[in-house]
Amino acid sequence: MNRFVILSGCSGGGKSTLLSALKAKGYATIDEPGRRIVAQEQAADGAALPWINMAAFAQRAITMALEDRERAVSLPGWVFFDRSLIDASSALKTETGDEAQLNALKHQHRYHTRVFLTPPWPEIYQQDAERQHDLTAAEQEYQRLLTTYPALGYEVVVLPKVSVEQRVEFVLTRLEMTK
């Protein structure tokens, strides 16, 4: 059983809030590569931004996600990832049509078989400096991930629209069931 757990799904669906709550409970967490890249690119007046050059952004996210996985090996217990190498590879495939990176993930760089997806949640969705796409684009991304993860052999568990505390309990309970 792999201890690397993916939290993915719709942008603005509460992934980062859930990750923060898991971190507060003492679990190891890895922040979303995309938000880190956007902050770096904006600070450096770079162009590897999803609204300027999605392919370059996805390539950077793949590189960062691989580095995150390497770093996570030394962390104890469950390690929760806000998005993953699969999200970045799926974005690259959507942008360029190149399936090689995504297809390689059927056998390489595996995560826990149970992946938790946040569904679209219009009531909490907010755009900001790092999330410039609208809810429609976020919903399209969610639909893509709903098919991508199972195609790579992962079991998708859609998170309920409940409080963050209830989501934490939901995730931890579902993980205990896999032991």
TrEMBL record:
Pfam hit, one: AAA_28
Location of the NadR/Ttd14 AAA domain: 5-167
InterPro entries: NadR/Ttd14_AAA_dom, P-loop_NTPase
Origin superkingdom: Bacteria
SUPFAM superfamilies given in the database record: P-loop containing nucleoside triphosphate hydrolases
Protein name (Swiss-Prot/TrEMBL): ATPase
